[in-house]
Design brief:
homodimer; 210 residues; alpha/beta; seven-stranded mixed β-sheet; two-stranded antiparallel sheet; 11 strands
């Protein structure tokens, strides 16, 4: 089973590597990091480089697509090889999924027209402007499309996806294998829980990356 | 502030990238992936390659050390450049931390002699054999040493570390920035919660990597 994770300059590292760590443990799965061209790709916070093993053209029809988010994708929305690839690969995929603002790329490819979907909480208006119906759940499954909220939500999404691809037992085993029994040190992981001044701080800070 | 993440063949991707995503967002932090030699380093499940930007020798005294786990570290415990580097860097570090079986490397370097520490739940006996006192908490802080449980626990650890390095407000902002409001799809993230047959399945499966 081919699972493709397409990456691009300034994608968010954890958006891709959270699902990777889960999906690469599925028996029989082959996970491939793709980019426009094979080679090194820098992450959003610029201090880590991942290697794309293949080009988008090398893997046109993977069974599973996982599109990570990151501020670098805004310049790809209008017209790009990545959006074209998503549009085409979605025609034959078994599952098309995204993490964080990866859903903006799915929407730009027409995958989310009139479809409930989620994204990073700061990007809900952008998602709506691209034709999707922003939902507040952390993981939104509609037909063969699964979208996840910001960054870390890719881990929850990937475990759900494993259950669909295989069985609850395999998903539970992988969850135990990565000891995913989270204990966030603060109650600040969503805008509905975080103190108002923290929400403001992050909203302002995000502008430096945009 | 220099934060070093030393990696090695067959380290676990999420062990390193979870903390990276958190720590690279700390104002003024410079996170560097190090290896014996700079260049590509393959992760535990063999389908992803990260790039080490510098050699261990290039950064002998970072303020913060984050050592990821992974099955590849077993052959480094007896004698290795990495263990020597940890022993020496720990003398001047402000914080010395590990994720998952990264604590085995800390222990091999003498950092955990008679110290409470945690690791992946499957590696507690190995940790004890190296002189540490295995604890069951997800994140264990003793003086300047913080150890985290398996793989995904590095995210919890890194957020705790950010609070120590800066303030609770910055840690909360980063937690909100990565939307870390986890909703694991199953109650199977620790051996005390997972069904007995799942614990057995993972214990058996782990042997293929060892």
């Amino acid at each position: 089973m081919d699972i493709a994770i397409p990456i691009y300059d300034r994608f968010a590292a954890l958006d891709a590597v959270g699902p990777y760590e889960v999906l690469s443990r599925v028996p029989g799965a082959k996970v491939t990091f793709l980019a426009e061209q094979p080679g090194p790709v820098k992450t959003e916070t610029r201090m880590l480089t991942l290697v794309a093993e293949a080009s988008l053209a090398d893997l046109p029809s993977p069974e599973v697509i996982v599109v990570p988010g990151g501020f670098g994708n805004r310049e790809l929305l209008e017209a790009s090889g990545l959006v074209d690839w998503i549009r085409s690969a979605h025609e034959t995929s078994t599952w098309t999924t995204s993490v964080c603002t990866g859903s903006l790329l799915l929407a730009a490819a027409g995958v989310l027209d009139g479809v409930d979907a989620t994204t990073h909480w700061l990007a809900r208006d952008e998602l709506r402007a691209l034709g999707a119906l922003p939902a507040e759940e952390r993981v939104v499954e509609r037909g063969k499309v699964i979208t996840a909220a910001g960054v870390s939500a890719g881990i929850d999404m990937a475990l759900t996806l494993v259950a669909r691809l295989t069985s609850d037992e395999v998903a539970q085993a992988i969850q135990l294998g990565i000891e995913y029994d989270p204990e966030p040190p603060f109650e600040s992981g969503s805008p509905s829980k975080a103190p108002g001044e923290i929400v403001e701080l992050v909203t302002t800070a995000a502008k430096q990356y945009a």
